[in-house]
Design goal:
- By secondary structure, this protein is mainly beta.
- 4% of the residues lie in helices and 52% in strands.
- The protein is built from one helix and 25 strands.
- Strands 1, 2, 14, 15, 18, 19, 20, 21, 22 and 23 form a ten-stranded mixed beta sheet that branches.
Length: 291
């Protein structure tokens, strides 16, 4: 992917950090070890985002069993691999291989059953999975996948040498690989050299957070260490976010979106708007209607 020349995003009233959070170590699937960065108690505060998992290891025992067949309904998953590969297969007969630097954007919609098998590449497996809610009138849409190779993700470089991978939304005039009208997600992977600053415009009503996965950042005068999430305040009149990397540089995800302001009912891999819809999802799955 050629790197685009950045058109500066002017931020005059940057947001402040509401709080800095550490993730929760846990396991999922068949014992895959990971850190749940965005946990269920934060779902309403960070609407439309439901979950963010960070995983990374050089020990195959931490993930080798993978994620055997499991169902989803009512939301989208965004899997971003920054090291290693992920093989996937679903009940509709789709198969694929997500490789280093690539993204899989899956719309579960009315329901599907799929499996994921992580693999090391050069001794490392690392990445993230984000859950993005669907509006109530789209929760039963047709399921689908989009596998986006690393070379298909637009990139830009700022005057300070910050490399920005634009997975979704728009940054500095560069449109990302994915756009969504209702939730308007912004998903940036930022690579900041030592001491470099970065600004990104954000609508004041959008919920937003930053997750640092290398080095450290200063976000509006608040230090954010590695493996920490900075939850950004919805400051009245704010127009974006400012950050600066520490002496070792930093890599971070900046994620923001338009809240749906709809009820959230979740039971494991099903996310709907009411308990009745959850009961129906469980019944449909047990009856084999996801296949």
């Amino acid at each position: 992917m050629d790197t685009n020349t950045a058109t500066p995003d002017l931020v005059r009233h940057p947001r402040h950090v509401e709080r800095v959070l550490a993730g929760t170590p846990t396991s999922d699937g068949a014992g895959v070890k990971l850190t749940r960065v965005l946990t269920q108690p934060l779902q309403r505060r960070l609407d439309p985002f439901l979950m963010l998992d960070a995983f990374g290891t050089d020990n195959p025992d931490d993930y080798i069993a993978g994620f055997p067949d499991h169902p989803h309904r009512g939301f989208e998953t965004v899997t971003y691999m920054i090291a290693g590969r992920l093989r996937h297969r679903d009940s509709a007969g789709h198969e694929g291989l997500l490789e280093n630097g690539g993204v899989q954007w899956m719309t579960a919609g009315r329901g599907l059953v799929h499996s994921e098998l992580p693999e090391q590449q050069e001794g490392r497996m690392e990445g993230f999975q984000l859950w993005l809610n669907l509006p109530s009138d789209q929760k039963l849409c047709e399921p689908g996948y989009r596998d986006i190779a690393s070379g298909q993700i637009p990139e830009l470089q700022t005057a300070e040498g910050v490399r920005v991978r634009v997975i979704a939304g728009t940054s500095h005039g560069v449109a990302g690989a994915v756009q969504r009208e209702r939730t308007e997600p912004l998903y940036l992977d930022l690579h900041l050299p030592a001491g470099a600053a970065f600004e990104q415009a954000l609508p004041a009503a959008h919920n937003a957070f930053i997750y640092v996965y290398r080095g450290a950042l200063d976000v509006a005068d608040t230090p954010v260490a590695v493996q920490r999430m900075a939850l950004l305040r919805n400051d009245a009149g704010s127009d974006g976010v400012r950050m600066r990397a520490g002496a070792e540089g930093a890599r971070a995800l900046l994620i923001a979106g338009q809240p749906l302001n709809e009820p959230i009912a979740q039971y494991g891999p099903f996310v709907m708007n009411s308990n009745e819809q959850i009961f129906q999802a469980v019944e449909d799955f047990r009856a084999g209607r996801f296949v």
